[in-house]
Automatic annotation (TrEMBL):
Matches recorded under SUPFAM superfamilies: Acyl-CoA N-acyltransferases (Nat)
Residue ranges of domain N-acetyltransferase in the record: 14-178
Enzyme class: transferase
Bilayer-crossing regions: none
Organism: Streptomyces roseoviridis
Ion transport among keywords: no
The name this protein goes by in its record: GNAT family N-acetyltransferase
Length: 182
């Protein structure tokens, strides 16, 4: 089932929109990050062909019904990062989220504002009963982002995911439709 990635407004003059080929500089910056390529499909090392393939994968995710990949864009039109809503488990009443910001965009609350906007949209418009995300225990910025968007830490999943060739623990965070008055 094809999904249409909408354009959403987020607090602080941010916009969330579908990926474009003009977002290749964002992919290139993310590819230089020591962590983002380990947990995503961002190519490292970067080449323009690999960057194009990354953007096309985002389009494919919506086209195949896997989820809604958004680019987080500043009020000045600069792409800052991404937030994705993944609906593979929607038949079981849940969806998951993931997000990252380019290093040059961190520290200003953009990830939190974007996550809050996508969360509200998923709960209110899509009527997803439960949202989840997974964060490594050392990633304090991401933990703060999740908590500021209303997610609750529910537990530690030991050896949950392979990252960089090793099994890593992840905190699981959840947000139920009744937890907020979005």
């Amino acid at each position: 089932m094809r999904l249409d990635v909408p354009e959403l407004a987020a607090p602080g003059d941010l916009t969330l929109r579908p990926w474009r080929l003009t977002d290749l500089p964002l992919v290139a910056e993310a590819a230089r990050d020591p962590y983002i390529p380990l947990i995503t499909t961002v190519p490292s090392p970067y080449s323009e062909a690999e960057g194009v393939a990354f953007v096309e994968r985002q389009w494919s995710r919506a086209a195949t019904g896997a989820g809604y990949p958004f680019v987080i864009v500043s009020g000045a039109g600069r792409p800052l990062g991404t937030v994705g809503l993944w609906v593979r488990d929607l038949p079981q009443g849940r969806a998951s989220l993931g997000y990252w910001l380019a290093a040059s965009a961190r520290g200003h609350g953009a990830a939190s504002r974007a996550l809050t906007a996508v969360t509200a949209w998923a709960l209110d418009e899509l009527r997803v009963p439960r949202l989840e995300l997974h964060v490594e225990p050392w990633n304090t910025a991401s933990l703060r982002t999740a908590e500021s968007a209303g997610f609750r830490r529910e537990g530690l999943l030991r050896g949950w995911q392979e990252v960089g060739g090793e099994r890593r623990d992840m905190y699981v965070y959840g947000l139920l439709a009744g937890d907020t008055d979005t």
